[in-house]
Amino acid sequence: MSAVRNLPPYRDSIAGSLLAAREATMAPIRPLLRAANFTEQQWRVLRVLSDGGPLDVASLAERAMLHGPSVTRILKELGDRGLTARELDKADRRRSIVDITPAGREAIDETAAHTVLLINRYVEAFGRERLTALLDELAAFQETLAPFAPEAE
């Protein structure tokens, strides 16, 4: 018997269910990002910088859950728009430190004002306790699966 026959239909699989939930979350937010002239990935980079302050590119990529080369390209685009700034790390001149600029922070604040309203509607519709429990379970799930990830090279 084929192993594929033992798999649930993709939509019912863990990966399929998580992707469907992500899509349900992001579909209403995408028009807001497009109106602000951001891709989802650009938004994630700016959000991470806004949340955590200056970071080196590798840490930024990890926190934004993006590949390093993608972050490099995104940072060039955001830098050209004056939304991020880069400077050499004083301790290690081979590394760049990236930060959000005041213009980037303003863009985040303007867009976030609209996304917060939408997220509040999500909380109201799903329930704060249920959402908190879901986020806790997803964090525990990630932690449980972390040992299964291949070693970074």
Task: Describe this entry's structure for a reader.
- The chain is mainly alpha-helical.
- Helices cover 63% and strands 8% of the residues.
- It has 7 helices and 3 strands; from the N terminus they run H-H-H-E-H-H-E-E-H-H.
- The protein has helices at 14-26, 30-35, 40-52, 57-64, 68-80, 102-126, 128-145, and strands at 55-56, 84-88, 96-100.
- The protein has a 3-stranded antiparallel sheet with strand order 1-3-2.
- Helix 3 packs across helix 4 (57-64).
- It is globular and about 50 Å long.
- The two termini are 36 Å apart.
- The relative contact order is 0.09.
Features:
single chain; mainly alpha; 3-stranded antiparallel sheet; 7 helices; 63% helix
Strand content: 5-15%
Briefly note the structural class of the backbone: mainly alpha
Biggest pleated-sheet summary: 3 strands, antiparallel
Question: How many β-strand stretches?
Answer: 3
Query: Could you tell me the mean pLDDT?
Result: 91
Radius of gyration: 18 Å
How far apart lie the N and C ends?
A: 36 Å
Biggest β-sheet: strands ordered side by side in the sheet:
1-3-2
Number of helical regions: 7
The coarse overall form would be globular
One letter per element, helices H and strands E, the order comes to HHHEHHEEHH
Query: Fraction of residues in helices?
Result: 55-70%
Extract low-pLDDT stretches: none
